[in-house]
Fold these 2 entries.
Entry 1:
Amino acid sequence: MSQSYNSIKPNVIDDEMLQKAVEERWPEDIGKLAKSEGIDFKDVTELQLSFRNILQIDNLWQFENLTKLQLDNNIIEKIEALESLVHLVWLDLSFNNIEVIEGLDTLVKLQDLSLYNNRISKIEHMDTLQELQIFSIGKNNLTALEDVVYLRRFKKLRTLNLTGNPFCEEEQYVLFVVAHIPDLVYLDFKLVSDTTRELAVSKYHYLIDPLEHEEAQALAQLEEKLAKQKELEYHKTAFVEYLNGSFLFDSLYAEDTEAAKLAYLPGVDDLLQAYRKDFVSVCENLFNYGLKEYEKREAEVSEFYKGLHEALTANQQEGRKIILDFENRNKERLDEIHHATSYNIAESKRAEYNEDILQLSETLMTLEMQTVDQLEELIKDFEKNIAVIASTFIENVKGMMAQCRDLENRHHEKLLEISINTLEKSVKNELDEDLPDDVRELLVDKTTLVNMVNTSHNVHLLKIDMRECDILSNTYRWQASVTGKAFQNEIDRNRNRVKEIFQYIDNLQEQLDSIELLEPPE
Amino acid sequence: MEVLEENDEEEQREEELMKALEISDEPHNIETKLSVDQVFVPSDVSDFDWSSIDISQLPSSYKTNSPREKKLLRIADHYLQQYTHLCPDRKPLFLYPVNECGIKKFVSTTVRPTLLPYTELYHWDGCASFVCDYLTMEPLKSPLIPPSLLYSPTTILKYQRGNCFDFSVLLCSMLIGAGYDAYCVNGYATHDICSLDETLEVCPLLRKPQEVPKEIMKKSNKYRVKSSPDMQSKFELQQEAKKKAETEATHKNEERGEEKVTEVEKPTHDPLYGLRVHAWVLVLSGKREVPEPFFINPFTGNSHSTMDEHFLGIESVWNHKNYWVNMQDCRNGCKDLIFDLGDTVRWEIMLSETDKPLQVLLDAEEENELFDRNMDDTEEEEEDTSFAMPPSWVAPIQISPREFETRCSQGKKVILYKKAKLEKWAPYLNRNGLVKRLTVYADLGCTEVVEVREWFKNREDMLDMRELNKQTQLTTEYFSPGHLLGLKVHIYKSMEPETERVMEFYNEARVDGLQKRAENASEIKEYFVGRDDFKYFQHTEFGKRGKKISVAGARTDINSRPIVQMKECFHRNLEKPADEDVAERVFLITEEMIHLTYHLKDKYITASKKDFFKPTENYRKQSEIMTPEMCITYQAGSSVKDKKLLHLYKLLQELAEEEKQLKQQVRQSEAEVLNILKIRENEEADIKLTVSIYNTERNEKRKQQYEATNAMEDEFPVHEEQDLDYLAPFLIQIGHPEKMTKGQVLRLRDDCLTDFKNRLIAKANIIQARFEKEVEELKKKNQQFQENQSQLSREEEAVFLADYSETMFCIHIVALRLNREKQTAPQKYLALEEKLRKDPRLAVHLSHA
């Protein structure tokens, strides 16, 4: 092996080689045509680079649309530079000198992967290849039979080739593999019989069952997580995330160290509980209202787009009808002009046709103008409605937030009262309860205490303001984006349509002009 | 005495049946008769002499009255007296007419509820159509009074004729048997109904199904485009509308004139209107999911609403249990009648307590069951305080399958409708499977045929119906699924190929999804459904034959028409972008052009297009295989003509290939049409009828087979034991010698016997082992139970007990088998020895021994 390795001159993938490889695949006539036009590597879907002594994969990034790539029988040592070939379905890297599986993460469409006859000692780094159906990794250095368990994640894997690896010597090799990959149809070029499968299951169920259990659990967890995320996403689009429950209330006290200390004062705990209850219920109200408003907004938007779609379809049909009418009328026109017996007739016919084309252009443009007017009105209506919805929502949110603030104010007053009472008691040494030392320290000076309570109060108010601000700004942003999108869509549509009409008319004119007329009689 | 009589009855009935079979067993006779009385004339039929019928063989219940029946007659008499006293100006009731034996029988006892073993007869319309088809109608002796005679349904069935009362009683018997709440009605109807004159009715087959106006749910959207202002002159529109109205008015006038003509044809006023006696059947709601009461006219088998204006009044109704007299005013016909028989003011009941109001559903059913149980048991008496209706005196109604199938009195029936004639035949009567023919005429005199529709049954070519329109000369044939190549409908003028025709197919049954193929001399249009390539339409135009044959130089299709143009249309394939998804593909063969039109992109109004000009032969020889001039492209929405020649060339190549295939396909469809025409011609020339394999009577082959197998089984009773050759394995061991020495024979015998012995022992051992195992298990379980008894919950204990009893059962069974084995083993051994002794191969030597 090393001898032959030395005697071969390693090659690099360069333009010339690629050009040649591409050309090889074409039949002669197409090849000629292609050559004269120049080859665009973007159009190539299959490439064969076998037996070329390639040492390093390189320069393949241009082949964006490649689906089949053969790099077998080279001396490649590392899988690299394949990241951009994301459409690859079939990759053949057999008979190379690869030692590690790597660099395949972006090839998510891969169905058929061959790493036969390499120097790989571990199956790894393939988690993203969920489409894999055929996998060949025979004649490698795989020693640990447990590696096969890795292949369980490929749900579509049906054909597997592992022959010629060291672990194939092991006695229970086949049964182990079949037991761990239950959907396998072909193993090492042979059909997996039902009896083998049963045997494998009965032998290894003690291994498989916990595995399956684990996988099921992981799946369930993942699903749960996804569901939660989805719900949160939904709440976010309704602008009321984290308002169902005590999240906001908890956040008020999260960074408030003073409040924690104050909580030790007698009577504060009860007060806090009551406050919390009221606050959460207001939040809940806000949350439910937000969801309801969200549905309303969605309904409004979808209704608008439905109406818009109807209008556009009607418009499309109308336009189509005009064009079809025109085309049917003028089917034979060009031929007539072409075969006209005399120049004069031809010329007059041509003028007539020209007139017709202008007429068509006129009609289409009028139709378009009309549509623009209609749609503008439609969109303005929509804008108005959206504005109304947004403003009511904002009003109500503001109202509910004001409730929160009121609660906070009231709580603050009561807290202040308790604090001062406690202070007085403490001064008079009438305090019965045992308080922690740092709390006791507070009860020394009235200003300190009041300041503390005030700071806590300010922090809370700030938090509430911030949350309100969030909701409001989100709502404004939504309003702007929805209406903006509607307008932008309409502008784009209008431009496209006008462009289309011009192009079509130009095309007709061109066709007419391209007809060679008889020479005008001199 | 009783028993003897009953036996006699049985015999008599059998004889009757035999006779009936004999009659219907002569199909030739029937056919000759058919040709004679082609047209059914109701008035001719009354020449049948009822007095000549044979009453000698009827059961005794027909000839005498039981004590209860006598009592019933007395009650009826009493009731009648009261009734005449109360309502002196009403007609006498139809209570106890005389039966065929001259015995007075109460009408309710003439109803004999029977459920016949035919699925068709489980439903009321099946019963009604059977009765009206099976019986021949006779008018009443006097149209103004009910008949004095009422024959039993069995007699009516036997002679297949009767008046409206006979029809009603038979139908009512069948309906009650089938579980309906049905009643015979004695009342008054119009002349048309009474005399079975349907010439003024539109044939039910011609009635158009009422179109249910579809409710279009249209939610108005708030976002709607305001339509552009209407610039049309209102005045002009008005003027136009006026003109239109005027022309329409004149049209209408003309039509009215026509209507007048038709009205003239209506009959003049009937002098006996409202007096004509008729009998029909009333079905009340409640049972068998009948939503509301309705009438059945037994002559036609049609259902009528109780509001129908043809029914003019009701005197009385009865079923097998009771008799009600209508006390409601019938001045407005039956429109205002209320059919709540429990209402004693409106309906005067005869046997008051026997029947609770039938509105109470459950009760009625129970009673029905009770009745059913008592039905055959004529002697059982229910001596209640109230008098119950005695069971029917009529023998059970029986209809043989042959009679049921033959239906109409001679296998044929003709009904005349307004401008139409309907003929019906029994299946298999006509050689071509014809069962129904409807002829539609243009005039009331039935002279000018407009349309002929024929229905077929049991045809091997699956032909279901043929429609011949005399005006357009179009023939339409409808096929049931299963015809060759999935043919569904075939519309044609002549069977000549390449003429105008339309063939529809069961596209589900075809690989190519062809649904319809319309053809005429110069084109073929094909419609497809559900194809993978989204093609839904293909249109091929042909040129004149023979014109270009020499040029085309195609030797294979000298006789076929040259193709001029082929057009294909495709549905949108959502997997492709719209401007790469071809919507229409036209191959202009003579002009060597290909037009491609693509689907519309979203919101676009112009479709992308490509026009290819195919390179001519000499052009191709040049080095350039593709030039920009060969393809004119219009790409909607993008001004860049980006497509490279290479792609275009590839596309062109593909198209050329497709064109070739398409041509072939067109030729194939032409061939298919020819093939179908040929097949159809053959089928029509030699019509075959299919016979179900379950129909042993008709399926001769099957019958023979069946009989043959029966005979076989009789002749050769199967002896499995004989088939087993005990000696075979041992003979193989010594290599099948032709002749065996005595020593060999003896050894053979001994081998065989020891082997058998071993087997018996082994068998016994197996059973023994199983027995021991079960016992062991039982012991173990018992022990376990004893140990844990204190800790066991009640449920566990129950489980154990169940288990225990099961095991005990097993042990018992195994023990029994062991015992039997022990007893029979020696006998078996001896039997084998005996058999071996008699075996011809060994006999020579063993007999000496």
Entry 2:
Amino acid sequence: MAASSSFLSTASLSNPKSTISFASSVSPAPIPSLRRVVFCSPFSHRRVMTVRSKIREIFMPALSSTMTEGKIVSWIKTEGEKLAKGESVVVVESDKADMDVETFYDGYLAAIVVGEGETAPVGAAIGLLAETEAEIEEAKNKAASKPSSSAVVPSPPPATSSPAPAAAASDGPRKTVATPHAKKLAKQHKVDIGSVAGTGPFGRITASDVEAAAGIAPTVTPPPPPPSPAAAPAPTAKATTTSSPPLLPDASIVPFTAMQSAVSKNMIESLSVPTFRVGYPVNTDALDALYEKVKPKGVTMTALLAKAAGMALAQHPVVNASCKDGKSFSYNSNINVAVAVAINGGLITPVLQDADKLDLYLLSEKWKELVGKAKSKQLQPHEYNSGTFTLSNLGMFGVDRFDAILPPGQGAIMAVGASKPTVVADKDGFFSVKNKMLVNVTADHRIVYGADLAAFLQTFAKIVENPDSLTL
Amino acid sequence: MQSAFSLSFSQSSLTLPNRPLSSPNAAPRNLRFCGLRREAFGFSPPKQLNSCRFQVKNRRIEVSAAAGGNGAPSNKSFDYDLVIIGAGVGGHGAALHAVEKGLKTAIIEGDVVGGTCVNRGCVPSKALLAVSGRMRELQNEHHMKSFGLQVSAAGYDRQGVADHASNLATKIRNNLTNSMKALGVDILTGFGSVLGPQKVKYGKDNVITAKDIIIATGSVPFVPKGIEVDGKTVITSDHALKLESVPDWIAIVGSGYIGLEFSDVYTALGSEVTFIEALDQLMPGFDPEISKLAQRVLINPRKIDYHTGVFASKITPAKDGRPVMIELIDAKTKEHKDTLEVDAALIATGRAPFTNGLGLENINVATQRGFIPVDERMRVIDGNGKLVPNLYCIGDANGKLMLAHAASAQGISVVEQVTGRDHVLNHLSIPAACFTHPEISMVGLTEPQAREKAEKEGFKVSIAKTSFKANTKALAENEGEGLAKMIYRPDNGEILGVHIFGLHAADLIHEASNAIALGTRIQDIKLAVHAHPTLSEVVDELFKAAKVESPASTTPQSVKAAV
């Protein structure tokens, strides 16, 4: 048995007919030696080139006489990368070894047809090589039209920037610092690292930031060292693997977009914060009157509310603070009011920076600009992740009151309902009809206490009820 | 016999312009590794220790009766036949061999027995690597699944890991000390220095005389200018081996074997790593094909990135709420290239000889960048280019080949010479290993070195390769990733170099290194039998894959030619 298995494991290696020998002479060798496999050789494959366009197919090479199919271990080059003759492009696993496959031509790796980890039969196209940069697009189209055999290239998530209503108020322009793993993931998921907001130590971009931006669930990272040397079972991410209820037969599954994943991630994260809610009725007669006056000048209700909230926050800095580590208050020097906006298939929170300081008209201008950018997915990270307080208004739908979830990294969020005519009795018992709007604030009780929030709401109500200060 | 220094593939190499860059027949590698003589381990269980001690004592009595004075200097005018300054692995190897040869021997140690290797080098690092290997395996769900194993998330206790390393160092240090004590080597405590010919001072003012003196004072981590080591966030291997912290992100300056091994440890424990390498490619000391494959397996899939062709011109430890700052300049133009902000930096730029305060001026010896100049027999050369009689230098202090087992081999070679048998150590037969997962090992020349030599001397060179993918045992272990490569002369079957990357490569290299040391030719060794199924068949395949023109010698014993 031993003898025969020994033979089996060695037979093919010593097979003199094998095209790729494991012992090849360095002295002028007519055959390509091991690990120097060349594709696109013009004479060896009939299928190569009827030089109509200068796009060549990269074939799965036959690395041994017994090889019928090969697995792509890894692409050394990425799509769009320039190749020089003789450079390794892809690593192919045969039944024997992993081998570098080198290009025979200069050009660009235009398209990867068979992705990493997938297999293709010998001779099948695994990628396309364009001679010039201009032909990359053409090659890509060609690749797209190819009925990708067994190989289904998972389409990479669009390189949209993270729309996460994320945390971390970044101040000032800063060099992007990304960890090695973050950079690798960004390349893998085709995320522009420059557009990712860093939440790690010193504001660096970590792997989870990139994953959030790419809209993928964070992988279960190597567990952190358990705090005590005791053999206590490490409380790891077991919880996340709880089985989901079975799907109904007709249900269709639509995966989250990047933005939806980011929202999901943030919402799950919010569960770790102890929040509470305080509601307050605000009389809006004066505000409505003001709004009618300034509306022709381009002022929106959102700007009015943001301005009012900003001014109230200026008097109650703790509501504008956040709790980053569970041990301290982080007082923010700026008052940046994020406003939740529903956009097609998603939710984003463009930020009105310095809402307390900017005048109403500038604020309105800014808001229009932000909404425009949000709709065209042009928002820069600092325009959606620098908020210190969030405003969410569903009044326009007739919602009279609701309750918002506190986004991670902030201390409070305000949910604004519709302003409705309401019968009220004054202190003398006279009834009258006033426009009332219910405002409900959700706050992090680690830093904002009930009385803080009540006082803030009182200030807010005063500003709204005497709105002249808003136009100053 | 000429050789490069361990500094050469780290950034420091380029700051030391006088280094002989390449010598034709030498510079096997600029790696230092560790090896201990078997004796060091033979004494581990206490029971065995006692019995060994007993046996050895008996032997001493017998020998002294026969030779008329082991334990007393053969020449009455000296206190000792041999005094060794430095009780590292080199000094230890020399001492054991000296006693075996009947020399009255003393060893002087100013710090701790075992030196760098045992206390701050290869030994504790192997303990950390043993942990990292297991972590890596347990974390690799895919790997476990392919065995049909289910493992819930693996975790570790940093202090427990650190203790394993320090316990191992303590154990080996005790073994080393006991092995010398058991043989009757006098261990003298204090810093040793050379007072004059055949005269050594140790401690405050103890002076002893010896017929021959070996300097084996080793080396310390080399820290280039501009780097501020605080021992907490900017560290050398000395600190890293204590594993006082596992930073989230650590920059490793130098991608030689020290850097590589630590990258293996840190990434397994959850850190992310950034390599800073002065040369244009990572792992410049290795055979290019091996380093390419190693990069694919050890670097690319892990949480590691790198900057090559750059010096870290300035590194400031983390303080005042700021991270560790690393200034990178272009290695050639010296222009500022980048600034890195990381949590910690490990300086693995090689090692500098520890030869200060040795009293070399007393005998007119000038060090060269700290290294003590020696000839191929480890005899110290003085300022006038003359040999200093009765004075030898081995190990890292001479810089020939900065490996623990090379130091030991040099020490044994010296003892052979002083006991009347001329001996020149073939440095090209000394294997080296890097204990990453999987391991890298090598002996002899790299392919480019072999080709250069072949061109010069006018012979042909061939390459044979085998893959671990074709090895039954490797596949059973699900560890098919790996390559063995042999560079040889097809005309006469001489092995010029062997390089292995794969499971247990460090253990597999010795068949090749022994063949080189003994001058065994491929056509003969290929007929030797290997047990099946074992990893050693990878090397067997290598020999069998070679195409040698000359036939096997009729009697294998007749092949005796030195390589």
